[in-house]
Amino acid sequence: MSGFERLRSGASRVASRMAEYRQRAEREREERDRERGRRAQQETAVELPPPPSVPPRQPEPASVIPWGIRVASEAGWRLLVLAGVAWVLMQVVGALSLVIIAFSAGLLITALLQPTVARLRHWGLGRGLSTAATFISGLAVIGLIGWFVVWQVIENQEDLTRQVQDGLDELRQAILNSPFQVSEDQLNDFVDNLNQWIGEHSQDLTTAGLEGASFLVEFFSGTALAAFVCLFLLYDGRRVWQWCLRFVPLSAREGVAGAGPRAWITLTGYVRGTVIVAMIDAIGIGVGIWVLGVPMAVPLAVIVFLFAFVPLVGAVVSGALAVVVAFVTNGLVTALLALGVVLLVQQIEGNVLQPFILGRMVQVHPLAVVLTVTSGSLLAGIPGAVLSVPLVAVVNTVVGYLRAYAEERNPQARRVHGATATDVSPAVPPAMPGGPPVPLGSADPTQTTVRELVEKESGEGDEGAPGGDRPPGGPPPA
Asked: What are the residues facing 437 on neighbouring strands?
């Protein structure tokens, strides 16, 4: 073997040994890396929970429904429940409508007559004598008004019938001479169709007459019940209010005891103010149409007085009735003059009398008044229209007082410049019957705290303390 071959063979052996050395070094490095990785994994290892024994179930159907739809559905079925409860309450109210209307009428009459009882008590008359005198006088006045209206209608029936016939003939002639080109045959056909309709529906009209007889029975029954309610509230209103407070939970009794007198003040203020405004309307419109020579001016004035208890709507209806009577009896010129009288009186009433007389008593927006009267008339007819506005005014006063009372009980929730419980009172009770009003927050004993009011309402004092010389639940006279 030559030297070159030996040299090449030695170089090959050296190269193979170096390759083996590199492979061994790489294996050792990989082995170290794997060992280092195992140590790091052991140090940071987290025990995983064992696999479930049963396979996972599918998600609930409610969980895949969008959140907004779920909220809407939850609110929807709750609203349906509330609607069902409201429907049941409406059915109960409808079944007891005679009792509810009679009690409400008695309460309104009590609010009107109670100041007279308080004044008689202040003059030294006993509670029973004051109540009896006021009650009998009130019934006499109401009865005389009703008798006078009926008497005037019967007394002027023949004259009014003749004048109405003349007015209808004049209206017929005006229609024939109008630019609408209505012929006499067309007008006669209209009258014949009207008579035919009346003949076809005579059975319905007879049924309505029988229902009218039933209505008279209910009317007199309700009148008697309202009279008894008024009598007992005038005589023993304080104890009636104390008895009602016993049904209120103790946690809410203090607030309700404070809200009751303020609600009564609102109601009495509304009734008295409405009576004054109605009297001024009746006198103004009655004198105006009497000067114009419209027949039955006094009964029309009484109707204006009664319709004034239906806010906004009643004045329009009674005024329109006076204008119609003036038109069919005295002609178009007198009707236009009567319309001017009605509009003048109503403008004075709406812009001067009501803001000045009612003032803070009824803090209800005119839009709310219109909606309330409409809703009340749809639900309960004329009684609903009459009772809707005082009900809303009382609820507004009670809610405002209870909200301020809750803020006083929770100082953290009290507003920085918020009202207190005594600031939301719509009126100030007098220091004594007929005396000047006492400002809120003064040292007068009638302006007590709510807790003191509860103590007074709970009967702490003389057992024979008069209850008819102040509003039911209201503060005693000074």
From this structure: 430
